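writing this on my phone so excuse typos. first protein, seq and then structure
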Amino acid sequence: MPHYRGEGVFTPSEKPGAAIEIVQKLDEMSSKVHIEFVREPWKRCLNDLKLGKVDTLIARHSVSREAFAKYPKTTKNELDKKRAISSTSTCFIHKKNAPLKWNGHELLVDMPQGISVPRGYSLVEDLKKKGFQIYETVSVKQAHELLFNGRVGISLSDCQHKNLPIKFVENKIPIVENYGYLVFSHQFYSLYPNLSEELWNQLMKIDGKAFYDKY
């Protein structure tokens, strides 16, 4: 998904990426903050948040990150997915006549079906352990080409994939769902807890899907 675009330290002035545009919209909506963007390697981003050199960044949740990053929580102290800045889900796509069953936990096929998977997907090892023949590719596009050209029977895609060829379908049950959150440094949150909560609440008013659809 096009969260960010461009390279180097500068944010592109046009079509900088959906996540950037959402944060820019948030900046417009709030008169209490002025957001400046800093582009750095990811490890430095995390370290700068830990040290309080930056106030906020966009990140997935992990227990280890909670040691230095504040995530939006519900009154029950659970992650508040409604206040996430982005969400992505991955689904199986396959030939219409492929006897595939996926219940959200277990993949069943009545006959061997090779699966093309972009390199880096965490579920590759689990699929290999289940005995499936996995073809790892360097990109999502190449994984899809193996499927569409009849080399494999199954591949992966963002759910609600647009413009699938007529002989192919998507299983509607996600394999995995990921959420991106606007997280604040502990230093920033301790100084401005009400403002932090207000910004998270404002995110719920922004139609994030509309920004991603532009890309």
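second protein below, same order as before
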Amino acid sequence: MTADAPQLTLGILGGGQLAQMLALAALPLGVRVRVLEPDAQAPARLCATHLHAPYTDALSLDVLAGCDAVTLEFENVPVQALTALEDRVPVRPGRALLERSKHRAREKEALRAAGVQTAPFVVIETEAEVGGALEQVSGRGILKTSELGYDGKGQARVSDLDGLRAAWNALGRVPCLLEGLVQFEREVSLAVARGPDRALAFGPLIENVHRDGILLTSLFLEGDPQEVQAREIAGRVAGAWELEGLMTLEFFGLPDGDLLVNEVAPRVHNSGHLTQDGGGISQFEAQVRAVLGLPLADWRPLHPCAMVNIVGAEGKTPDWAGIDALPGTRLHLYHKAWRAGRKLGHVNLVAADEQTLRARLSQLETLIP
């Protein structure tokens, strides 16, 4: 940025670790950040102006309306907040996309409408719809609440009618989605950004491993054979949904080589954290650029890289000295209070070649419980 370049301000709904990393990516671009977040200990408060108030607070929304654009840190934001902003400031992604992506049934239906494969599913909103639902998804599935729930929360695996009834009752008898189980070989993700000029840019295809519903590791290697297919699907959904901003698609890789879309997040994604240290621009800079209408280009690491999440574990602590001593590591902590099962940070790992990366990743996984 030159001395006479215009100063931009970005508003973010949400002030957690993703907002923190978005703000850190925005600052070198000359962009100041304001976050609206009801948690007094919001991680983003350390590097952005923190509007400490409910998401629907009128005075705080007035402050965000004075930004050049507003984006989302996560999807569990009240739609009313976007409604209050949308005629006053560009909100990217917008209300319609948020309403779709935060509701699992609407999301699946919109993906199908865009011509994209998903797991078989059936919507359950009343007790009468529980009976016969499993037969529509081949007898086994995962019951998920239509709204809220993440990192494995708000869902239960079921294989018979009694189990389905018990799961629906345990989830509060709220509207749910029953997804059929899919036989897949791996889980991958890819992000797509679309500016207000409709120009598209893509992140890399990343392979992911989960444990107990929480992302454990992510891996990027150049030349993934399914990347072209993933980009085509992501671009199709971005166009059909009229995306402005950035969103991440999670896929199941099927044995026949096809990709099936599992979920869509209207934001940067945990799996994309490895782009921070791989040598190219990060997913966070890509979202900032897309939201503010700055020039966009594909973002991808220049070297093989991986990410390992640090999740609170009862009675266990990472080997901090061992992590620091392992070549190619870079630690990112979120300044969050410890809690079992809570994401507290991540470690990115970069190496010159695949063999070295995999060997060091195996070492790193032993250092993080």
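The first strand starts at residue 8 and ends at 13. thats all i got for now
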